[in-house]
Amino acid sequence: MTEERVRVIGGGFAGSEAAIALSNLGVPVLLIERRPDEKLFHFNNSGNFAYPVCSNSFKSVQMQNGHGLLKAELSVMRSSLLKHARKSRVKAGKALAVDRDEFSLLVTRDISNRKNIVVERRVADEDDLKGRAIIATGPFTSENILECIKNLAGQKHYSFIDSVSPILLAESVNMEKCFTASRYNEGNDYINCPMTKDEFNVFYDELLKAERSGYDETDKEEFFSGCMPFEEVARYGRRALVFGIMKPVGFDKKYYAVVQLRRENREGTMLNMVGFQTRLKWGEQERIVRMIPGLEKAEILRYGVMHKNPYVDSPSVLNENLEFKNRKNLYLAGQLTGSEGYMEATLTGIYVALSVFSKIKKREMTLPPETTMSGSLLRYLLKSEKKINPMNANFGLLKDYSKKNKLFYAKRALKDIWEWYNERTL
Ligand SMILES: Cc1cc2nc3c(=O)[nH]c(=O)nc-3n(C[C@H](O)[C@H](O)[C@H](O)COP(=O)(O)OP(=O)(O)OC[C@H]3O[C@@H](n4cnc5c(N)ncnc54)[C@H](O)[C@@H]3O)c2cc1C
User: Fold this and answer.
1) pTM greater than 0.90 (yes/no)
2) CB count in 10 Å sphere of residue 276
3) What distance in Å separates the CA atoms of residue 121 and residue 31, rounded to the nearest whole number?
4) How far apart are the CA of 345 and the centre of ligand 1, in A?
5) Is the separation of the CB atoms in 279 and 146 below 8 Å?
6) Mutate to test the pocket of ligand 1, among 54, 58, 163 (most ligand atoms within 8 A of CB)
7) Residue 85 three-state SS
8) Whole-angstrom Cα distance, residue 150 to residue 311?
9) How many angstroms separate the alpha carbon of residue 52 from the centre of ligand 1?
10) Which domains does the chain have, with CATH numbers?
């Protein structure tokens, strides 16, 4: 094996997974990470790797769900981040949610303990892109690297808007008005704040009047549908939230609407407002959140905020191996490729590591089979004929998919990804 050190720029989800996967394959890595960085304080400035900036949920683990199948495939591909996520799991029903500090500490320790990974804490620049390098700088890409990416991509780059939910101090929640339960009697993992119709209507009217920050009519087209601020969802109609994040289904008693709170940490001292990503002004967030029964005195530990995320038109900018078409040995991974979500970024991290490894070994690299979730998502990102939109794992992407027998498709996918992965890592 050559001794060339591969530069991985960015120690987030894609970069951390890529660095560890390369290390496992015996390839030496130089990992450059800008954090801790004062400019990013609101989105975490701990300096630990792979810090989940918004929700602490990595979504479903059920194989009949696109996110669950992606996790099962990542597990076959020995994803280290998934392993650490399982170790730092907090109770969240059928979802894999993590204690975010513990999770990113485990990833950081894993990286720090590896002799073939050198870590540098600084903002990478254009010189770092020379030689063999992977750009995995994600939504918080520094201006200088973003400029390089734009130059390489020509006109083919876009952006979309993501936002984060508030986190509450658990002891400030009035449990006399709330109850613990997961939907459909599947445990007691969530705290639920029920609302009557009258309470909801007052809440809704005030929500529509609440002041949003950085609001611009043209933003609407840029929201990622899976992460739309709840005040924007509310604008689709009075009952939009009741059919969405506030749906009252799966409980023993009837309610008009229910707000769910999920543990942020193992101790349960912090709670995440499920689906309440927002860009309301901070004072307004407090006012609106406190209109929810049980949250009248809620203390917000971290406010919701929004962020504009850049990505490139991967089919025209990258080849099948996530390598820039116009710059040999320079690769792109993570959110910048148009993937959306923690586990999706993790997938691109493993895939780019295998691509680099194959190139070093002078072997051909092919996409995972189109019968797999990984292969389907990567195909969408790299082979689409139309402009790509931010995409996360879902069954609709799978080849020949029919709703009737999800388990059949899932089992086939696992068998196929197993064969593909073993061939790539021999
Ligand atoms: C506001 C917001 C909310 C989100 N909510 C969710 C959610 O609820 N669920 C979900 O699944 N996904 C969510 N996402 C998406 C999620 O952040 C990404 O899918 C995932 O983190 C992308 O992984 P990545 O590796 O591409 O980037 P990141 O995980 O962000 O990692 C990139 C790393 O590169 C570093 N970096 C940047 N520039 C440089 C440089 N020049 N030199 C060195 N280091 C650099 C950054 O500091 C960062 O650590 C959200 C994103 C945002 C912005």
Assistant:
1) no
2) 26
3) 9
4) 9
5) no
6) 54
7) helix
8) 9
9) 8
10) 6-158+309-425 (3.50.50.60), 167-304 (2.40.30)
